Amino acid sequence: MTVVLHWFRRDLRISDNTALSEAGRAGRRVIPVFILEDALRTGPDVGAARLAFLLQSVECLRKNLAEMGCPLIIRQGRSTDLIPQLCTETGAGAVYANKRYEPYAEARDRRLGETLFRAGVEFKLYKDAVIWEEDEILTQAGRPYTVFTPYAKAWKQRAIPPPRPQFKCSPPERKPMVRSDVLSTDPAAFGHPLTQSVPPAGERGAREILRQFMAGPVWEYAAKRDYPAQAGTSQLSPHLRAGTIGIRAILREWQRARAAATAVQAASGDIFLNELIWREFYIQVLHNFPHVVKGAFRPEYDRLKWSENQDHFQAWWRGRTGYPIVDAAMRCLNATGTMHNRLRMIVAMFLTKDLLLPWPWGERYFMRQLVDGDLAANNGGWQWSAGTGTDAAPYFRIFNPVAQGEKFDAGGGFVRRWVPELAAFPGDAIHQPWQEPLLLASTGYPERIVRHEEQREKCLAMFKAVKKG
Question: Which of 2, 206, 236, 262 has its CB 3.0 to 4.6 Å from that of 244, i.e. a possible disulfide?
Fold first, then answer.
């Protein structure tokens, strides 16, 4: 019987898993493997919340596989060393895995593939994290899309494939004599003490979240998704990031629900679909334009003369800028590892266009804090907000943090939750506490560190100087 290693990476689930399903075909004996890479523990962007969610998801996967009689082998170290070693230990003639699209992961897979080829071991990678990848959707000129709207239109013209067949484990004839490490689910064991709350992890939890969302909230998505005080989003992003749920499974449930929806409901649900397409858009941008990892998508914007004011940066990440919606968002991120998408845009524009600080500073801070931190989406979102990226918000589009707070947190409920110093402020001043100087002085809440109107003009001048040059 052919022995195949299935290497779990960002696909920590049994159902709707392309490489795992393919590995289990034609009577092959599948040995599931997970490698806790050194980079997942010691890399510069490691965050305790994301690591905790990963570790908990791996533990859920281990238990689910054990119920099927398929023990999960866990090792810690470098996959380029450990995967060939495991092939030797198990007699595996092939390694199956699902594709990764980050430049560093693609380079690692190329190195590993060369090593396995020399050893006579097959290395097969499958599309799984996305519906359409790399160069599957191109412009009429045969080039990758750099604007979302035509990309989304082309995406929607194609049929969505169904979920992959369920994996059926073929238990080994005897217990394999292969060492497996025991992983703690506490990130503190790897040097990253957890100070944030982390949502429930694992495949079963992901399916339940999807079920609840498709049972009703998806049809109010358009109306509620921009209001952080309301439960209007799917909460699926950490699971998509870790792969505890598959994109095809989400879209299958979306299609089923949409078939029974009214026209108004369907229109709202289509907005949710657009958000899933944004995810794929940024993944194909990352693959086709890998320079975005180290600089602006539009290289001319690498010449922008950003500020280097560390005091301003510290005030931003601590939630002490004097702008309530910005500070509430950052405090929420620091406490929960999550941030509402509307708030991500607000705080990103504030950092780059009010404080005039470099977008990579914010991008990296987000990666260290977010439980759903994803290179493609995070980089794409930051460059969109900063005005430096593909399909970017024009540099002259600058959110007014007061107007954003008044529009999307009109009652001040979100601000009062995360900035309790302002709990007693009247509704007409909650987003402009400086209008009540005596009350503000008694709260300990800071004065504005900058004036939006002044900084807006400085930002416009900074961008215009680059465009003229």
Answer: 206
